[in-house]
Amino acid sequence: MRSTISILHILVHAIFWYVVIDARTIVDSHSQPSDVKYFESNLDTNIGYWSPSTSSIDWCERNYVVTEYIAEFWNCISSFSMCILGTILFIRGLYNNVETRFLLSSLGFVLVGLGSAYFHGTLTHLGQMADELPMVYSMIIWGFILYRMNEFKQIKTKLFATDILVVFGIFYGLLWTYVHTLQTFVLVFQIHFTLMVLVALIKLIHLYRQPYHHVYRIKYLLIIHLVLLISAFVCWIIDQQLCEQMNNISQFNPQLHAWWHVFGAFHCHLGIVCGEAMRLLSIKHRQHQIKIFRSPQQSFKPDDHLHIVYYLGLPYIDYSKEKQTNKTKD
Fold first, then answer.
1. Spatial CA neighbour of 103 closest among 114, 113, 93, 88
2. Which residues make up the binding site for Ca(2+) (predicted)?
């Protein structure tokens, strides 16, 4: 255990210091980026508080229209929808004493929202990194949750396999941080993140197909989860492909990239709730398997172990009966 911790300590510090040292030259190399992705033939030359822009991409929304202190007003404001939903999940998770993995996922959700708001509000290279890097970190945490959904053994009893997954996730995140911070990929990042989302979605659907996860309420949430993802993706594509028409012809830009943030926020919220639901059913199924050896065999009915409540139309896992059961056992 000590050797593993030492390896992680050395790995984190080595890569971290490389990033810190190279970050000193990043400011100069990105102060006047020559290869910036725009979505209009005429470049947006509006000047504001954060000018000049140092990011490698400038979205469809016209800059500094609402206020001189926010580059892309609606894209910035809509990003806080992720912060709000993520904070609610985190607070409920603390109150219900959920596993740390879901608390980290909720915190990652919040960081993505804050980074997105910072990026769209400033259009700086640092803001772009604050937006795109937490997106990758959050997907790494989400991947760990999905691929450890049915794992119950403690780290001490299964040290090697667990540590390999954790070390790989940390190493991958730091490596991507190092490379992406220096190069600021646009297309590569978009393809990379899309693949991560698709792999996670396929894994989530595969987990639902397991008998002890096969609950109609989860199926309902998964359908909405998928619909929201498709809606967000459509908004994201149209905002880029029809940007010039919406800005010049319609006289009213519907700000579809802002809607991408909102749909994406609810999509992530439902994803985390589905993850919590499946994890709870996995734990209950495991407990049921242990009880089979002590009492007459009974079939496992997942519907009896999952309770979902709704607040303002948003679903949450109801842990009240679970907490009452734990108190009775104590």
1. 93
2. 58-59, 61, 63, 72
